[in-house]
Amino acid sequence: MVSEDDLGPLKESIEELLTQECDSLTLHKFYDGHNELDRQLWTHAAELGWLAIGLPEERDGLGMGVQGLDVLFRALGAAGAPGGFIPTLVTAQWLSEVADSAACDEILPAVISGELELAAPASPDESKPSVEERGGRLNGRSSWLLGSGGAGVALVPVAREQGTALALVRLGEDGARFETRELWDKTRQLGTVVCENAEPLALIDDASGAMTAKYFGYLALAVAADCIGAGNRIAMQTIEYLKGREQFGRPLASFQALKHRSVNLLVALTPADYLLMHAVEEAARGTDNARMWASLAKASAADAFRFVADDCVQLHGGVGHTWEYDAHIFLKRSLLNEILAGKSEGLRDTASDDLTRAAVAGVSTMEIAA
């Protein structure tokens, strides 16, 4: 477990840079295609060591694990930051724990230096293997992956004669290419990998599904952190807007109905925030119930963020839908976050199954909630 004494300064340094480099005006210019904010932030991240935050020290990382990544993803979400941070860092963290040394030696140093971005499965709802491995070669089109157009390696679910596996595939050569799709949320990209007799960098056996479940647990925590950071940002920004905008000679914030709606924004986010903090602690401790808490945290955070983003558009009035204001950017981010790592209904079903297994195994309610 990483102490708050270490996480506090990390949080301050990340937020300070994002305030300077990813302010609202700069983000809007990125949306309009007038800058390369995603590349600029990626360069800063490499220079400042953000890309090594979660990785263990023996892999030249900072050793802060999921707690450090939680701090980073909350800050990136609050800034509405573009780029392939989530798929790259989640996959790198996962690889450091499940892949062999050869794969880690090839992938992780390039990630830490900023030379390599990764693409990886976006949702368990869409991750059934549609690429086949035969004779050490891959063929087919993958399910939806999260990752930028600059991704150099993709993590792809594959079907094998012996079962299933997860393959690392180098993009742009050896018969594999990444075809991206334009989204409403211009800060992230989805795409599919087309393999034509491609040779994988590595194959990680996953006949039991445990490796895939572990990956999606980390992705759920990352997306939940993004939701909480972004939700708090647009909620507070909207409250400040209501304080400054006048109607009938009075600030909008002085009207009782709008006061109640403003409070509802924070009421929606607060329990989701505490649930995420607990889920991160469970993952950091490596408990048997970590996946259950990660699933619940992501479902709760995504639902809260969607509610907040939608209501903030309405509380801005007619200008909430206009291109010049931030509300629509965060609403679009919330819509994509609802899908990433799995939809809320499926995640709660997964958590319910995990709870049932724990109860059948004789684990008490107190132990599960501890």
Task: Tell me about this structure.
It contains twelve helices and eleven strands. The protein is of the alpha+beta class and 370 residues long. Strands 1-4-8-3-2-5 form a six-stranded mixed beta barrel. A hairpin with a 2-residue loop joins strand 5 and strand 6.
Q: What are the SSEs and their pairings?
A:
Elements: H1 4-21, H2 24-31, H3 37-48, H4 65-79, H5 85-98, H6 101-112, E1 118-121, E2 131-134, E3 137-141, E4 145-146, E5 153-160, E6 163-170, E7 176-181, E8 190-198, E9 202-205, H7 210-244, E10 246-247, E11 250-251, H8 256-285, H9 290-315, H10 327-339, H11 344-360, H12 365-369
Parallel strand pairs: 1-5, 2-5
Antiparallel strand pairs: 1-4, 2-3, 3-8, 4-8, 5-6, 6-9, 7-8, 10-11
Question: Reading side by side through the largest sheet, how are the strands ordered?
Answer: 1-4-8-3-2-5
Shape: globular
Q: Count every helix, treating DSSP H or I runs of 4 or more residues as helices.
A: 12
Q: Report the uncertain regions.
A: none
- Give the proportion of residues in helices: 55-70%
Q: From the alpha-carbon coordinates, what is the Rg to the nearest angstrom? A: 21 Å
Q: What's the N-to-C terminus distance?
A: 16 Å
SSE arrangement, N to C: HHHHHHEEEEEEEEEHEEHHHHH
Largest sheet: 6 strands, mixed, barrel
Give the class from helix and strand content and strand pairing.
alpha+beta
Percent of sequence in beta strands: 5-15%
Indicate the mean pLDDT. 91
Number of strands: 11
